[in-house]
Design a protein that fits this description.
Blueprint lengths: L1 H18 L8 H10 L3 H6 L16 E8 L5 E10 L5 E13 L2 E9 L8 H12 L11
Antiparallel strand pairs: 1-2, 2-3, 3-4
């Protein structure tokens, strides 16, 4: 009887360690990121809440890499996407920075912090801030193509 107990205990010590390895759980931001990298925007949209819209991604700046950063606020992640710039920098540039809000395994809100592929995204806000801070008029030119 003791011999059987020793065998069972020794088997339990070695077998579970091989069968139960800790696998990292793939959360919704990882799935969303993989869909963006594969340029499967419909699949990426499926990870969003029905009220949430994905910001525009310019087709002339295809995403080459995405970095996900955690924040101190629970349920928020920062995504930084990169693209390869052949014209100006001739290297890797930031395409956009998004702040994702996640609840119950769905992305409920996407805030565009920066859209470096579109450098004039925050132009109106910058001009208004300058006008109110320095009480000066700023002339801004537009080019139409």
């Amino acid at each position: 009887m003791k011999w059987i107990l020793v065998v069972v205990i020794s088997v339990m010590l070695f077998v579970p360690a091989q069968l139960t390895q800790a696998m990292p759980r793939e959360d919704v931001t990882d799935k969303f990121t993989k869909a963006l990298l594969a340029h499967k925007y419909e699949l990426a949209q499926s990870y969003l809440n029905h009220d949430t819209k994905m910001p525009e991604i310019r087709e002339d700046s295809p995403i080459r890499g995405v970095t996900g950063l955690s924040t101190p606020i629970k349920g928020e992640r920062i995504l930084i996407a990169y693209f390869w710039d052949d014209e100006g920098v001739k290297g890797e540039r930031i395409a956009f920075i998004w702040k994702l809000t996640i609840k119950r395994d769905q992305i409920t809100h996407i805030e565009t912090i920066s859209d470096a592929a579109n450098p004039f995204m925050n132009e109106n806000k910058t001009v208004n801030d300058y006008r109110t801070r320095y009480n000066l008029h700023v002339m801004v030119g537009r080019v139409s193509i």
